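In response to reviewer comment 3 from the previous cycle, which asked for concrete evidence that the modeling workflow produces usable outputs, we include below a single protein chain processed end to end. The sequence was submitted unchanged, and the resulting structure tokens are shown without manual editing.
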Amino acid sequence: MVPPGALTVVGGPADLLLAGFLSSTETRSGQSIAAELGCSRTAVWKQVGALRALGVGIDAVPGQGYRLREALELLDRERILAAMGASRAALGNVRVLATCDSTNDVVRKLGRDEAHGAAVLAERQTAGRGRHGRRWHSPFARNLYLSLGWVLERGVAELGGLPLVVALAATRAIRGAGLRAQGVKWPNDLVVDGRKLGGCLVEIQGDANGPCRAVMGIGINVHMPADSQARELIDQPWTDLGSALGTVSRNALAAAVLAELLQSMQRFEAHGFGVFRPAWRRADALWGRRVSVQQGGARLRGVARGVSERGGLWLDVDGRRQEVLAGEASLLRAGRGGG
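The workflow returned the following structure tokens.
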């Protein structure tokens, strides 16, 4: 029986093929772990080293064994599916990986038919990224990294609002976990009081008139480790769910995000982005704020006034309203409201 606070890792690259079986509530000897798993103490020692290399805090107590510094909840496919209830019927294949380059890349490599409704979750990404190739730091088994594939009959021109739809789905899931004071910074950053909680990356391939294939990736900071190197590498203010809510189940959050995504995709296919605009207005973290946007070689400065039917950002620039499309621009900064 797995004790409370235990960590079990199965699958992944060569250094994770053995199970890591450690607890935050009791010290377990290498000998007892090896006996339970039917492997050598050397294999256990190597696995402990592999987990430490992934940033997992493990203390070695002389004469007693190993103990996790903090309890970890690993992602569990069956727990996630069970928590989704009837909404799981719209899913295709669901995979939970110990590590991968990025969950978006895994889904993108699937065949067209296999990719529709396919979900991939990972404990760690080695090449996670955001818009414009920005790196997403991914400590092992602490946050949520998932992607969903979907095939749409709509053409590329009709999918400009899709990143916003994905961000709204993540926001509803987070609200369901108990965090109310969060919003979305156009086009798809999840923020709390100006600090980044998560982000979305939507990649689309297809024709002008359809069909198109979308890969929708979501990353959410859940429990960033206190001594994580990523804390020093992140170049913007950030926060995590644990800071506001205490203990948060990553499996419950994954189930909620997937359920909201599936519902949103079905609604988006039927009605387009327009039906999501009222929800965007409620979640809009930029409304009325002065922002600076890089669009091509030009820099625009104006006051944010919501989004268009295409999901573009409306800016009031020198008394004239101008639409900025997400695929063509980078938001440089947002200041206090005005105008």
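Residues 7-68 form a domain with the Arc Repressor Mutant, subunit A fold (CATH 1.10.10.10). We consider this sufficient to address the reviewer's concern, and the full set will be provided in the supplementary archive.
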